[in-house]
Amino acid sequence: MKTPEELGITEEEFKNLLIVKSLLDSGSLTYYYEETDSPFRFDMNTTSSGNEYECGSVACIGGWVSFFMQGNKFSKESIMKIDHVIADNYVNMDKSPPLEKLYFPELEDYDINDFYEAITPVEASQAIQNFLETGNPKWDSVLDEETLEIRMMELENF
After folding, report:
1. pTM of the full predicted structure?
2. What is the pLDDT of residues 91-109, one digit of tens each?
3. Residues 6 or more apart from 30 whose CB is under 8 A from it?
C-alpha cells in the first residue's frame, strides 16, 4: 500500500478511504438498490443525500469520505449530520486531484449516467484497494462490461 504522500492525497483522505473500504467490505454500507432497512447506503451516482424522515443517508465513495472528514461517527444518531453542501464541494472541487479517477469512474463507450448507479459496494471496494496500492482505481478491470449491461437493464425496472 502506498503512503498518502505517494498517492498525492491528505492523511485525512487516506484514513477515511480506509474506513469507507472497511465499511464496504463488511457490508455495513449496503447497495442502494438492495432491499434493506439499513440507513447506511452506497450509490456511486449520489454524492450525498438524506431525507426529512431521518431514515438514512446515501452516498458515493467521496460522499462517505466527506461524511467522516466532517467529524461524523458511523451511527444512526449522526447519519443525518452530513452537510450536503460540504460533501458536494469536497467531491466536486476540494478533493486532492489524484482522487478524481476514483470518485469519477470513466469507461470507454459509457456516459457516466449510464453506469454509476450500477457500481456495487464490492466493486467500489476493489477500486479503492487498487487506488491505495497503485494510485489508479483501475475501474476498467473492476467493472465487467457485460455484467454492467445486465445490471443497468435490471435497474431500469427498479
Report:
1. 0.84
2. 889 999 999 999 988 876 6
3. 36, 38, 40, 41, 42, 121
CB neighbour list of residue 49: distance below 8 Å, 6 or more residues apart: 57, 58, 59, 84
- Nearest CA to 28 out of 124, 131, 99, 115 is that of 124
Q: Exposure string (b/e) for 120-136, b if CB count within 10 Å is 16 or more?
A: bbebbbbbbbbbbeeee
Which has the closest alpha carbon to 151: 26, 63, 34? 34
62-95 tens-digit pLDDT: 989 998 999 988 877 776 677 778 888 898 899 9
